[in-house]
Amino acid sequence: MPVPGEEVDYKQITVSPTVNVTTLTDVSGLSITYTVPSNPLPMMIRFFSPNLASSAATGGCRVAILEDGTVISTATQLDDAANNGAQCHMEVRRVPTAGSHTWKVQHSTLFSGTMTLTAGTGNPGPAFLQILWC
Q1: What is the per-residue pLDDT across 87-117, written as a single tens digit (0 to 9) for each?
Q2: How far, CA to CA in Å, does 120 sit from each of 6, 12, 16, 89?
Q3: Contact between 72 and 63 (Cβ < 8 Å)
Q4: What is the DSSP letter of 6?
Q5: In the chain, where the domains are located
Q6: Which CATH number is 16-133's, of 3.30.930.10, 3.40.50.10420, 2.60.120.760, 3.40.50.150?
Q7: What is the dihedral of CA 44, 24, 27, 35, to 10 degrees?
Q8: How far apart are CA 69 and CA 9, in angstroms?
Q9: pLDDT digits 0-9 by tens, 61-95
Q10: 8 A C-beta contact, residue 93 and residue 134
Q11: pLDDT above 80 for 1
């Protein structure tokens, strides 16, 4: 039986992926598939990146959390200077049905330039996708 606060799964990346398209694209390594038991507790799906930035002077970035291919949360960031990014922390509470589900992170640029989702091994640290029971 699930216990509130218990971690269901955690995936992290330590290499910064980039994307230069306006279509949401999978972030390699940030995907979790889990078989939810009958009568589940709510779940908290979390994403964190130390920094999101666009190479364009007036660029922007978008990050999304998906559940079974459907966007359940998005964050957008507008940059006023090239590579002038900020942390991204997203959380969404869900009560999924029993059965197998896949959660993943996707990212894109908003207008032009290259979007970088920062991840490292020391400082700045990893980007991650985490699922907890609530």
Answers
A1: 999 999 999 999 999 999 999 998 888 999 9
A2: 25, 10, 7, 16
A3: no
A4: -
A5: 16-133
A6: 2.60.120.760
A7: 40
A8: 18
A9: 999 999 999 999 999 988 777 777 889 999 999 99
A10: yes
A11: no
